[in-house]
Each structure stands twice: as C-alpha cells, then as structure tokens.
Amino acid sequence: MDRLNVLDLFQGLATLAAAEPSILVMRLVLIALGVLLIYLGKKGVLEALLMIPMGLGMATINAAVLFVPEGGWLRAGPNQIFVDALAVADNAAQTTALMNILQINWLQPIYTFTFSNGLIACVVFLGIGVLLDVGYVMARPFQSMILALFGELGTIAVYPIAIALGLTPGQAASVAIIGGADGPMVLFTSLSLARELFVPITVVAYLYLGLTYGGYPYLIRLLIPARLRALPMPMEKPRKPITSGQKIAFSVTLCILLSLLFPVASPLILCLFLGVIIRESNLVPYMDLLGGVFLYGGTFFLGLLLGVLCEARLILDPQVLVLLLLGMLALLISGIGGIIGGYVLYFASGRKFNPVIGIAAVSCVPTTAKVAQKEVTAANPGVVVMPHALGASISGVITTAILAAIYVTVIQAVY
C-alpha cells in the first residue's frame, strides 16, 4: 500500500500548496475578509442579514475549493463552482449527469432555478413591497421624487466613465445601476445586458451595498456641518390620513403605467407593487409569508451564494478590479448627488429642510433612511426625519427601476 501523503488527506491544504502564488495570497485574503464581514455584521457596522452568510460562504469556498472540471460538454459556470445554467444535455446520459449534479451539489439548484434567472430578485422584491408604506411618497410626492432623481447621479455619471474604460454598453449600464443601491435591479440589469459578467457585477453590488451602512455616515459628516444635521424639520399642516384604498389605487396605477412604459422591467415592478397591495389589503397570511419566509429566505441564500461565488480566481480577473472601482464610484457619486438634492431643497425651502434626508434617496430601503435618521439623532436627539427619508428612499426604488428599464430597452434596441 502506497504511503499516504499528508496533503492527500487534507485536500484543502493541498489545493493551497498547489496554487499559484497570486491565487494562494488572494485565497488567504478572502478567507480573512469573510471572517471580517462576519465580525462587522455581528457588531452592526454592516448589514448582518446579508454580510454574515456572505462572509462565511466567502471564507469557506476559499478554504475548500471544489470545482467543475474544464472541458467536455458540461460547461462550468462562474468560478467553476456551479454548472452553467445554460448547459444543454443532448442525450439521456448527459441529462442524468445534470440531474445528479442538481441533486448532489446542494447549492446548484438554488443557483440554477433562482439566482441565474433573476427569480430571487423577484422574491426579494415581493418581500420588500410588503414592508413599504407608499403613503410616505404620496404625502410628499414632489419632494420625494426630486431627491430620488438627484440620488441617481451615480447611475447616470458612471455609464460614460465605464464606456471610456473599455466596457461594452451592456456591461457599462449594468455596473452603473449599482449607483441606485438596489441589488435586485443590478441582478436584473446584468442578466439582461451582461450575462457574462452578471456574477461579478452582482457580487460587487451587494458587497458595496452592505458597506453603505458603514460608509455613508462619514460622507454625511464630511459634506454636511453639524448645525445643519441638527436642523429640525418645520411642522407640517394637518392633513387627512391617506387611506389604504388610496394607496392601493396609487400602486395599481403606477404598476400598470410603469409596465406599459417599461415592459422589460415589469416582473420586478409587478412583484414590488403586489407586495404593497397585499400589505394595504391586510392579507396577513401573505404578509407573514412574503415579509418573513420569502424576504429573509431570499436574502439568506442570496448572501450565501454571493459569498460562495467570491473565489480567488474570479476576484483576480482584471475586469473585476474595474468593476470594483466603478461600483464604489457609482455609490459615492449617488450619495453625493442625494446630498446635493438635500441642499437644493434646503435653499428652496428658505433653509428649513434638513439636507441629511438627501442621502436616503440612494434607494437601499430602508438602510439609507436609517442612516439619515441615525446621523440626525446624533446631532439633535429630538429631530425626526424618518418619514421624509422613507419617502425619498421608496421613490428611489421607482427611479432606479425606470433607469434600469431605459438602459435595457435602449441598449437592446441599439446594440
């Protein structure tokens, strides 16, 4: 019997030992980064619901890399961990092989049937819709939409920059949508326009979306002085409460109108407003299902899959470095744009509007609204801006959907 090598017994160490130096270093870095994401999620610095499964998935996959062998009819998917969702079986044996992979690799069915076709984005949007109160938008429609438009500055500005850096129009639009801070929209746009890069684009988007909770407070403190952060909002005139019937009518009208104008985005638009209508109809069993199981289950598997997809070879791709920089730039410019919008309303209102609310227009619902309220509370504990911030944030979801649909429609038609 041949002598058993220690590395044959501990195969994870064997893959590390056999890896190129750059891959070895990157795997160790990503393991450490995964552990850091778990720690920061636990401490509340980053969004724990996404970062904890993502961090553990990232650390684990780089500690134990298993992959689909290259060559043959069975195409490897992103970073060779999953079988390509478009792999086609031509005979019974190949069909059996595909079914075996779907049964043995426990994450492959989730990747194939929910992630690579965008279904998980629709599931998350259903859950988000159940949590949204469109009354915040209806109470201040013009204020909310003005801020939301300013909060799309990065979504617009990064597109020509990406084109100048050599990305195709589809790739440029997909990475520019990161500026809207809406993960499902990024997944939808990249699947429609840049399928070859949808995994790294989505990974970059969600990694940075998790970091907005920790990064945007510093941007607010840098651009808005403490005396303005502490500015109380003026008392509003008493108004009639917005009824659930009015909210349903608003949601139905907007859903049909946006679907008529932008049919390519209608699956996500439908899911978002269906969730809103279920909420306003007080369908408690559906609310519990969508707002609990669907939303948190979708977020969990989305984070876990994104972490598993963060393998060293994928991250070392030179194009991914460009995506990392562009994604960061898009969110930075959108954050600045939102604050500019806050200043515009500050001066337009006779210096009565708190400009911190502008950051909520970057539509990471409800994270950026929470960030705005947290920073205002730190400056003046008696000031409440959450209703205004939620209106801007919900409007940001709508404007991001519109811009994503415009990008997809125009680029598919022209290119």
From TrEMBL:
One Pfam assignment: OAD_beta
Subcellular locations according to the entry: Cell membrane
GO BP annotations, alphabetical order: sodium ion transport
Keyword line: Cell membrane, Lyase, Membrane, Translocase, Transmembrane, Transmembrane helix
Cofactor(s) annotated in UniProt: Na(+)
Coarse class of the protein's main subcellular location: membrane
Membrane topology classification: Multi-pass membrane protein
Family: Belongs to the GcdB/MmdB/OadB family.
Protein name: oxaloacetate decarboxylase (Na(+) extruding)
